[in-house]
Amino acid sequence: MQVIRAQAMGFCFGVRDALAIVETIPDPAAVTIHGELVHNESVLIQLESAGFRVAAEDQRGRLDDRPAVLITAHGVSDLERSRLLAAGKQLVDGTCPLVRRAHGAARQLAAEGRHVLVIGRPGHVEVQGIVEDLPSFDVVPDVSAVHCYARERLGVVCQTTTAPRLAAAILAAVRDQNPLADIRFVDTVCQPTRDRQSAVENLLERVEAMVVVGGRRSNNTRELVALCRERGKPVHHVQSAAEIQPGWFAGQQTIGLTAGTSTPDAVIEAVFQRLCQLGKESSP
After folding, report:
1. What are the angstrom distances between the C-alpha of 206 and each of 32, 110, 202, 252, 276?
2. What is residue 178's three-state secondary structure?
3. Top-confidence residue, 174 or 59
4. CA separation for the pair 111, 184 (Å, rounded)
């Protein structure tokens, strides 16, 4: 069995930068990470083992007694940032610069008097950070959620990890259902997301099945899985090599491998080695 890696996969620069910031912190016991630094379970375990406290994303409103708060790669709203500072917290900012760009784009559209549509997953921490600073918004997860918004001016931005094909479909639906509105779209899908989606597109015709490695809560990982399913390709979403089942690949000779932007290199390599081992075991 041959295992073919996608040309672009794994950590993006935003995640690497956030983890590099973590390495510079001299006293992890003084820091609470404001949610999940990245949506990857193995990384979170390592952070907790190092002494950091990781606040559950649905419990971020509760502040503990640690003096410093590390803002994750997903960012926070200006409103939340002000709340943390008012509580006397020292902020360590790990926000991805491309997430900052999405925040800025949404605020600019709002400043123009537009009702802002955020293409993304409702409740996702990145989306939450964007909309908390907006006076008027809707979060649009898919085409079925689009409707006529009865507003003269609309602005549209994207969660940075939105699949480009999904963003295009939703934008087309917004234009179709709001034909008289003045609509301005700012494309805030990040380049690493585009690169990983494109790499999978190029790989799908060459393989019989796909393995996607990444956290269950990682939006860009789930979008990679969704792409494979939309193209009718068997796909297995795993968080580690231990989850791989030999029976998945019976009779298959070529397997594609990709990973979300929050997946460590070591985890990807372990999955690759496990697939190669299964390939050797299945050889006659």
Report:
1. 45, 45, 8, 12, 17
2. coil
3. 174
4. 13
For residue 157, the one-letter residue type is: V
Is residue 230 part of the annotated active site? The answer reads no
Selecting among 126, 132, 223, 281, the annotated active-site residue is 126
- Same-domain status, 195 and 162: no
Band of the pLDDT at 226, cuts 50, 70, 90? very high
With a cut of 60, say whether residue 284 has pLDDT above it.
Answer: no
Token pair, residue 145, equals 């959620």
**What pLDDT is recorded for position 280?**
74
Per the structure, the count of domains in the chain is: 3
Task: Note down the domain range covering 270.
Answer: 2-9+191-282
Same domain, 53 and 136: no
What is the DSSP code string of 234-278?
-EEEESSGGG--GGGGTT--EEEEEE-TT--HHHHHHHHHHHHHH
CATH number (domain holding residue 143) = 3.40.1010.20
Q: How far apart are CA 169 and CA 142, in angstroms?
A: 8
Q: What are phi and psi of 237, to 5 degrees?
A: -95, 115
The fraction of the chain above a pLDDT of 70, given in percent, is 99
How close are the terminal C-alpha atoms of the chain, in Å? 11
